[in-house]
Amino acid sequence: MQQNGSSGSNGSDGCSRERQSLSFSPLPAATTRVRRFIQERRTLPLPRVMVVFSAAGDTEKPSDAMSSSDSAEDDFRKPASPSPNLTLSKPLRSPLHTQEQEFPEVISLNVGGMYFTTRLSTLRRYEDTMLAAMFSGRHYIPRDAEGRYFIDRDGAYFGDILNFLREGELPHRDRVRAVHREAQYYAIGPLLDSLEEIQPLTGEKVRQAFLDLLPYYKDNLERIVEIAKLRAMQKKARFAKLKICVYKEEMPITPYERPLFNSLRFERSDSEAKLFEHHCEVDVSFGPWEAVADVYDLLHCIVSDLAERGITAEQQCIGVCDKHLINHYYCKRPIYEFKITWW
């Protein structure tokens, strides 16, 4: 009996071992969560995808992919940081290397349709010039159909520019003004300095020093042109006449006062000065000024500047202003008639 009992107990122990071997291990948390959603007939949430950058040698283990949703959500909220082992072998963009343009030793030029040939060293003779900058290799210069470098400028005086760059030759007097304008355009300082030391530019500098005493000179010159044009158009005439007052003294005087004063200015009180303030009945008035140059010098400037514009002007004195001021004082400013001919 004992043997049977022992055998029975042994049998029961064997059955218990079999049950333990056949028993299932508890489900993971993720599986249990899925079953709960199925029982409650709710839709499963969409999975979230997390991208993690890693070095080429690092591989993700399969067990890491089966982590819980809670830990996945926590990882998703954390900002992804690049791996310290991740390095870029090549830059994203290679830097651009600009090469300076190279020129031949002999340069063929097309300046406004006129052709010139010169050495590259001639164009680069003075560094601080427009030509030296153009042919430094840092700027693009267009070419014509024949391959000549093109400069969009009148080439009538470009030969004079090259002659100065080659051997310092200056132009003839009748070309000085035009070459001076071209030298200003090409910013050739040594040529500008040389031209300003010869006629007619030297005389122009002296004349301009005198005209600077009359800051209204250019405005009055414009008024003469406008008034003459308007009168000629109104009368349908070939010419127009204007009255212009040109006086040098600051205060009006009489012939009896002139020997008593050696200077051009007079010391008078403000109240006395107002008694002499008036405007002569003329179209345009020039004066006063203090200089050695007199009225005839200014008249010459007016006629010359009008001729520079292609306007023919003739002038003659037709008298003086006889306006009485006070006591024995009269204006006595000379008045000139200008005849402007349009054709």
From TrEMBL:
Residues 105-203 form the BTB domain. Residues 1-27, 59-99 are annotated as: Disordered. The keyword ATP-binding does not apply. Signal peptide: none annotated. It is found in: Cell membrane; Cytoplasm, Cytosol. Pfam families: BTB_2 (PF02214), KCTD_C (PF25611). GO terms for biological process: membrane hyperpolarization; protein homooligomerization. InterPro entries: BTB/POZ_dom (IPR000210), BTB_KCTD7 (IPR057891), KCTD7/14_C (IPR057890), SKP1/BTB/POZ_sf (IPR011333), T1-type_BTB (IPR003131). The keyword Membrane applies. It comes from the Eukaryota. Residues 1-14 have a biased composition (Low complexity). Keywords: Cell membrane, Cytoplasm, Membrane. GO terms for cellular component: cytosol; plasma membrane. This is BTB/POZ domain-containing protein KCTD7. It comes from Seriola lalandi dorsalis. The lineage of its organism: Eukaryota, Metazoa, Chordata, Craniata, Vertebrata.
